[in-house]
Structure formats: structure tokens, C-alpha cells
Amino acid sequence: MLWDPATGPTQVKAAEAAAQRLRLQLQALEARGPDDLEAAVRAATRQRAGALLVLGSPVFNSFWRRIAELTNKNRLPTIMPFTGFAEDGGLMAYGPHLHSLFSQAGAMLVKVLKGSPPSDLPVERPTTFSLTVNLRTAKALGVAMPQSLLARADKIIQ
Predict the structure, then answer these.
(1) Antiparallel, parallel or unpaired: β 92-96 and 129-134
(2) Residue 38 and residue 71 in contact, taking contact as beta carbons nearer than 8 Å
(3) pLDDT in tens, 97-120
(4) DSSP code per residue over 5-72
(5) Which domains does the chain have, with CATH numbers?
(6) How far apart are CA 96 and CA 99, in angstroms?
(7) Whole-prediction pTM value?
(8) Cα 10 to Cα 107: distance, rounded to the nearest angstrom
(9) How do residues 81-96 score in pLDDT, each as one tens digit?
(10) In angstroms, how far is CA 19 from the centroid of its own chain?
(11) Of 99, 59, 101, which is closest to residue 80 (Cα–Cα)?
(12) Kind and range of the H or E element at 157?
């Protein structure tokens, strides 16, 4: 799991809890900026990671092409939260659907503009998620994608 400590421990704790339930071994690799990405991917490769989960981070979201290049070069199947990662060559992306998030934000803005104090508005979590699978990358990495996963995908890149 690749994480940016600047984002706080919440995502890491959730990933650790999920890994424990699934009986998966999980190791956290830190990257605080783009200069740390190559070393983190090399560390995952050295430790013979079976796959890499990239947690959400402004740093990672700005450099998903670089992450895709590094993980593909090192033959490391990788999933990241945003669709652009898979569109730019990464194996998979699963996370909040960005257009839905923008719609939710717009609805909140309308409430504020109509006079609701922002402090009275509830925190809203994403309600729509998107799964994108890049079959070209899967083939290059030698990863067989289960038909059940492909059936659930919102977008498949041939």
C-alpha cells in the first residue's frame, strides 16, 4: 500500500482493517512527494509485493501517469482511486465518481446561497463509485481479469 503521511492515518487504518478481514499481508510504503515514488515502487518490487494499492493523495492524484509508468515497468499490478489512472495506463481504478462529487458540491453550494449556514449542512460521503479496468495493461502484466470483475466495471479499456 502506497500512502502519503500528509493525508493522515484514516485511509491506512481502513486498508489495514480490510486486509486483516481478508487475511492479506499489507505493508505500508510512504511517499511524501513525487521524488519518493520511484523508491517506493522499487521497495514494493524488492519485497515481492503481489500488487499495490495506492491510497488517495493530492500528490498521487497529480502524478498518476508516473505511478502507472513505474508500476508497469516493474510489473506490479496496481489500483488507484481515480479513473484517470487506468485511462493513462494503470491496471485498475476504483473510487468515487468525480462528476457525482462535483454535483454534490454544487447542491451544497446552492443551499448556502439560499441562506443555509454552512455549519448546519451535513457532511456528505460519496454515493457513486466507478470501476475502470485497463485490459491492455492486464495483458502486458500477465494478469487475468475475472469475468465477474469485468461485468461490474463501469469502463473497460481495450
Answers:
(1) antiparallel
(2) no
(3) 888 888 888 999 999 999 999 999
(4) GGG-SHHHHHHHHHHHHTT-----EE-SSGGGHHHHHHHHHHTT-S-EEBPP-HHHHHSHHHHHHHHH
(5) 2-157 (3.40.50.2300)
(6) 9
(7) 0.85
(8) 26
(9) 989 999 999 999 999 8
(10) 16
(11) 59
(12) strand 155-157
